[in-house]
Amino acid sequence: MIPPAFSKEQIIFKLEAFCAYQERCTQEVRTKLERLGADESLSIEVIKHLTDHRFLDDKRFVEAYVQGKLRIKKWGRQKIKAALFQKRIDAKLIQEGIYAFISDDEYQQVIESLIERKKRELSSEKNPQIKKQKLMRFLLSRGFQYDEFSSSNLD
Question: What is the distance between the alpha carbons of residues 13 and 129, in angstroms, rounded to a whole number?
Answer without folding.
Answer: 58
